[in-house]
Amino acid sequence: MRPTDESFNVTAVLSDGSPLPVSELADAMVVDLESMPAFEHKPEVAVGNATLPVPDGPFAVCLPLPVAGFGHVVVCADNGGEGYKAAEVSGKTMNFCLEAASSRVAAVTRAEAGFRESGTQFSADYRARISQAQTLLEDALKKRSDEMASAKLAMSSLGESLHAGEMLVVEHAQSRIAASPARTGFRLGCNGFRYPELGEKYAALFGDLLNFATLPFYRARTEEREGERDFARAEKILEWTTRDGIEPKGHPLVWFHQAGIPAWLKGRSYEQVRAAHRDYVRDAVGRFRNRIKMWDVINEAHDWANDFDYTPDQLVEMTRLAADTSREADPNAFRIVNCCWTWSEYVAHGRNYSRTIGRPACSVLQYLRNLMDAGVDFEAIGLQMYYPQRDLFEIDRQLDRFCRFGKPVHITELGVSSSTRQVDHLEIARVHFVRQWHGPWSESVQADWLEAFSTLCYSKPSVEAMTWWDFCDPAFIPHSGLVDEDLRPKEAYHRLHRLTRAWRSHGQ
What CA dihedral angle connects 198, 204, 209 and 210, to 10 degrees? Predict the structure, then answer.
């Protein structure tokens, strides 16, 4: 999908009918029918209005939208799943609220029909929600000539269909779980980075809930001086996980991010960097052979973390090197290619974590397709899902897109907050902290989200692991720990504990 020389306008309002602020419209983008932006673009915005480029293929439009009675999420309009075509929109104005409401009702009812074929029956609450969404949408369509009245009715419909869509996928997931044997091999974990610092209480709380731990192999810390490698921190955590029967995973072996690049490696040629990483991967995996089987062999190599400014082909070859060298060092290594920003918004922004990309960027889906096309051999796809900014219906659809590659999927990093208390932490926190899901973030809202997301993951046979990040506050996402700084378990900890016990007892 490529941009044309044409453009179109998008108008949007809040639920009370007031124009959508420029701050929201600035994040409007055109995406393909897999929700991926295909090229860099920036809307021209004014209050209530954005001008976007017209792509040359079927496309959708998405933008963040505060929806009264639901929350603040990214919403998409895709013409009922068919996508918009250039001739239909070029030079015209789209009533985004009406199009989004219509597209969401169509998507939910289409999904419902498919789920019913597999035997799922849905609750009266779901049926009431989708029925009300359809009625409000019909009213909005009747008033299409009155754009403001139509948009306000559409927003009410959207609030109902967003709830209905979430209920639909969670109820379907629960139905699938009830109809299937317990998944004894499902991995539920966190990083274990705070051991031994926080001692045996931390270890006990962790082990009572989780069976999987991520161990640190960040090269900027493990090899500050060339050839002098220090894996003592990972060794110490591994002593605990081995003692307590928790499966370990090493993370990450290759990462072209400042945390993965020692100062001495910067400025070296592509071949020199390849040789240095081949040696590091061989040493790390070989040293822990028979003790750590599972590895994130490369992290975020889809243009998000690319401090060496490698081309897409070079990133594919670096991924091959990481995967092949891991297998050479340990024939039983389980190799995960780890990805972030799974909706690939950075493609539209033209920036990665540290700089302007300077060429057409590669989306996560395209990166994985490039790996498949090149025959890169690895076992699992890793996905990070920090503050996904989408409702659970869209998250469910996104997970299915990655499951269709036919490889196991691991949710490798994941977190939402338990508080709205602002902290001066990472940029990711400041960017996404204001957005809400079913109300301001709190311990109960965090627990609701985690329970629903975990249910979706556990219901999908292809999703084999889920790793929360972090176990304890302070955390990468502020207040996202399952326990607080005093090691007090939060509601999310207790909710997940009850949920996993129910899963384990299923079928006994």
Answer: 70
Q: Which of 411, 22, 3 is closest to 11 using CA atoms?
A: 22
Reduced 3-state DSSP string for 5-51: EEEEEEECECCCCCECCHHHHCCCEEECCCCCCCCCCCCEEECCEEE
Give whole-number Cα distances, 339 to 38, 72, 403, in Å.
17, 24, 14
Query: Distance between CA atoms of 159 and 70, rounded to whole angstroms?
Result: 6
| Location of structure tokens 């998409």 | 76
Spell out where 263-404 has E strands. Answer: 294-299, 334-339, 380-386
Residue 449 to residue 492: CA distance in whole angstroms: 9
| DSSP state letter for 118 | T
CA dihedral 166, 341, 436, 71 (to 10 degrees): -40
Closest CA to 336 of 280, 229, 255: 255
CA distances for 172 relative to 175, 273, 347, 393, 404, angstroms? 5, 47, 33, 11, 18
DSSP state of 170: H
Residue 35: what are its φ and ψ, rounded to 5°? 65, 25
In three-state secondary structure terms, 464 is strand
Burial (Cβ within 10 Å: 0-12, 13-18, ≥19) of residue 444: middle
Q: What is the pTM of this model?
A: 0.96
Instruction: Specify whether the CB–CB gap between 86 and 110 falls below 8 A.
Output: no
From 273, 412, 421, 244, select the one nearest 338 (Cα to Cα): 412
**Structure letter (DSSP) for residue 419:** -
User: Angle formed by the axes of helices 124-142 and 147-178, to 10°?
Assistant: 160
Tens of pLDDT, residue by residue, the chain (508 residues): 999 999 999 999 999 999 999 999 999 999 999 999 999 999 999 999 999 999 999 999 999 999 999 999 999 999 999 999 999 999 999 999 999 999 999 999 999 999 999 999 999 999 999 999 999 999 999 999 998 999 999 999 999 999 999 999 999 999 999 999 999 999 999 999 999 999 999 999 999 999 999 999 999 999 999 999 999 999 999 999 999 999 999 999 999 999 999 999 999 999 999 999 999 999 999 999 999 999 999 999 999 999 999 999 999 999 999 999 999 999 999 999 999 999 999 999 999 999 999 999 999 999 999 999 999 999 999 999 987 789 999 999 999 999 999 999 999 999 999 998 877 655 444 444 457 889 889 999 999 999 999 999 999 999 999 999 999 999 998 899 999 999 999 999 999 999 999 998 875 4
